[in-house]
Amino acid sequence: MDSARNPYTPNAGASPEIVVGRGEQTKAFRTLLGRLGAGRTHQSMVMVGLRGVGKTVLLNEFRDIAHQENWEVIEHEASKHDDSRFRQTMATLLRGALLRLSPRARWTDRGHRAASVITAFSVSMDQQGTWSLGWDVEPSEGLGDHGELGMDLSDALVAVGEAAQERQRGVAILIDEVQFLSARQLEALIQAIHKTVQRKLPITFVGAGLPQIAELAGDAKSYAERLFQFPTVDSLSPEDARTAITDPAAAESVQYDDDAVDLAVEITRGYPYFIQELGYQVWEIAEQNPISRDDVEQAREAYEAKLDSSFFRVRLDRATPLQSAYMRAMAELGPEPQKADAVARVLGRESSQVGPTRAELIDMGLLYTPEHGYAAFTVPDFDKYMLRAVPELLVPPIQKRKKRT
Ligand SMILES: Nc1ncnc2c1ncn2[C@@H]1O[C@H](COP(=O)(O)OP(=O)(O)O)[C@@H](O)[C@H]1O
Ligand SMILES: [Mg+2]
C-alpha cells in the first residue's frame, strides 16, 4: 500500500487514528470534571499499566475532553528531580494556567492572591535566589511559604482553584510517568488535592504511570485511597483489538480478510503498541486489497525486527552489564513476576549482593514490584526479548560499587 497513507501510529504517545476500548476511562474523567465543576467532590484517578498500553494517549484524550469542557489544562511529564526543581516546574505550570484563566490586567483580588501564592511557592526553597519565576509578583506571606512541600503546594492549588472557580472554570493537572515523582512529591500532590477536595474547588490531578505498588506511608496513604482510584490500563479485548487493526485501514478504504485479523490479534495479543507496529508493517508489505492472512504472516518478521530494534532495545541500551545480567536471569525464569532470591540464585549470588541492581532497575522504570519481594518487567514480552538479545547469561565479576547518589 501507499506508505504516505499508512494510517498506523507505532510511536510512544502518538494518538491512534481511533482510540479503541477506553470508553470507561474517558467517561470517568468526564464525570470527574462535571462533578467538580458543579461544586461536588469526586475521586480522581491515577492510571497504571505497562509500557505501550496507551496511558499517554489516554492522558491526551483527557486534555482534549478538558478543553471541550472549558477547563484549563496543565500537562507535565514527571522526571526524577529534587524538590526545588519540582517546585519550579509546578510553579511555572501554575503560573501559565493562571494567566490563561485571565490575563493579568483583568486579575481580581483572587487572581492577584493566586499569583502571589505561586511566587511564594516557587521561591521558598530556593535559598540561592538564583531562580526566578519571571514575573514581578511579590510573594505572599503566610501562604505557600512554609518551606514544607505538601503545605505549600496545598496553598498554591487552593489559590489557583479559587481563581478558577471565580471564573467558572476549572484546572486539570495531568501528570504522566508519575512513578518518577519522589514519594514526597507524590504525597505533596495528594495532600494538596485533599485540601482542594475539602474546599470543593474545581481543580484536580490525574496521573498515569507504571504499576508500582503505592509506596506511600501513613496519612498520605489513607488520603490516597480515599481520593483516588487506580484503574489499570491493559491490553485490548479481542474485539477491541480487531477494531484497532481494521478501522484505521478502513478509513483509507482498505479491508482485511477475517483470518488475517485473527492472526494479527494472535500475534499482538491486543497490546496497543504491538497492534500499531504490526499494522504499520502489514500496510507496507501488502499489495492487494483486501489484506490477506499471508500478508500478515509475511509482515511478521519485519514487525519483530522493528520491535527489537526500537521498543525493546532502547530499554536494554540503558542498562549496565550487571543490570542486563539481572534482567537476563529474570527472563530465564519466565514471564511471571519473579522473587528476588530466585533471581539471585540464577545469578549465583546472594540476594543482598544483587539487591542494589534490582533497586536501580526499578528506579529506571525497567522493573516494577507487583507485590512485596517480587519484580516484573514493565514492558510486555520483555522476557522473550532478553532471551533473544542475550543468548547466554554472563554474570560480570563482583566489583566494589560506587556510592549511589
Ligand atoms: N486505545 C488505543 N487503540 C489503539 N492504539 C492505541 C491505543 N492507545 C494507544 N495506542 C497506540 O499504542 C502505542 C503506545 O501508546 P502510549 O500512550 O505511548 O502508551 P504508554 O504511555 O502506556 O506507554 C502508540 O503507538 C499508540 O498509537
Ligand atoms: Mg507513556
TrEMBL record:
Domain Orc1-like AAA ATPase: 19-206
UniProt keyword annotation of Nucleotide-binding present: yes
Residue runs in coiled coils: none
Keyword line: ATP-binding, Nucleotide-binding
Annotated SUPFAM superfamilies: P-loop containing nucleoside triphosphate hydrolases
InterPro entries (alphabetical): AAA_16 (IPR041664), P-loop_NTPase (IPR027417)
Molecular function per GO: ATP binding
Name of the protein in its database record: ATP-binding protein
